[in-house]
Amino acid sequence: MSKRAVLEVIALDAEDATAAQAGGADRLELVTEIAADGLTPSAATVAGIRAAVDIPARVMLRLADGFEAGDVDRLVAAAEEMRGAGAEEFVLGFLDAEGAVDLDAVERVVGALAGASWTFHRAIDRAADRDALRKSLDGLPGLDAYLTAGSSTGVDEGLPTLLAEAARGGEPGYEPQILVGGGLRLDHVPYLLSAGIDAFHIGGAARPGGWSAPVSEAAVAEWRRVLDGG
Question: Transmembrane ranges (predicted)?
């Protein structure tokens, strides 16, 4: 029997989370300030969502659109606060000015996660060298997924990179799951599934009414149907 593909949906609040779970989402990504590409939500929001649904949720650890000196201490504090609010999984990723992974920042924040599972987010799509980034992070505790479109401009341009990286699964740096998101459409899914990619992340695609509208249970259910081969 084939393994069910993972469907992760961005949730901004408990209403989103409830609709996503009802539509068949396997996991949530919890953020705020989507206009800034997603920042760390409040502890109250995280606690409310954890009380509303029982599917896993990964909390974004990102304080601003950019990275400044002193942010690491604040991120560590945010991670500890989120854990106190019930967060058990996380999303993070930091680059330096040259486009290489900021390994010191990543290691310090991961150290505050107490072994929790986490995703390295789409900072990989802005990295100067994706392969070097993956190998630098190889073996860090809890890293089990890369959220990526294969390109900073989205899946349309990144599809060849995604397929090439999927073919390297199991190599050092390529063990974490590829979680595809960023301009992802339903018509991309057959190509990705055929390459063995089995995790998909949607935000705007779950909101036909735009980001000012809540997650649509029906939209999530349509993605679930397609991913399940319906």
Answer: none
Residue 1 lies in a domain: no
Q: Whole domain around residue 113: which residue ranges?
A: 6-227
Q: Is residue 32 part of a domain?
A: yes
Q: What is the pLDDT of residues 42-51, one digit of tens each?
A: 999 999 999 9
- The residue among 51, 145, 37, 127 whose CA lies nearest residue 90 is 145
Residue 80: phi and psi, rounded to 5, are: -65, -40
Across the chain, how many H-helices and E-strands are there? 8, 8
Instruction: Name the pTM for this structure.
Output: 0.96
Q: What is the pLDDT of residue 155?
A: 98
**Within 13 A of 201's CA, how many CA atoms are on the CB side?**
25
CA angle 53, 227, 40 (to 5 degrees): 40
Domain count, the chain: 1
Domain CATH code at residue 101? 3.20.20.380
Is residue 80 situated within a structural domain?
yes
Model confidence over 129-183: pLDDT tens digits?
A: 999 999 999 999 999 999 999 999 999 999 999 999 999 999 999 999 999 999 9
Please say if the pLDDT value at position 1 is more than 50. Answer: no
Report d(CA 124, CA 140) in Å as an integer.
16
107: Cα within 13 Å, side-chain hemisphere = 8
Crossing angle of helices 43-52 and 14-23, in 10° steps, is 30
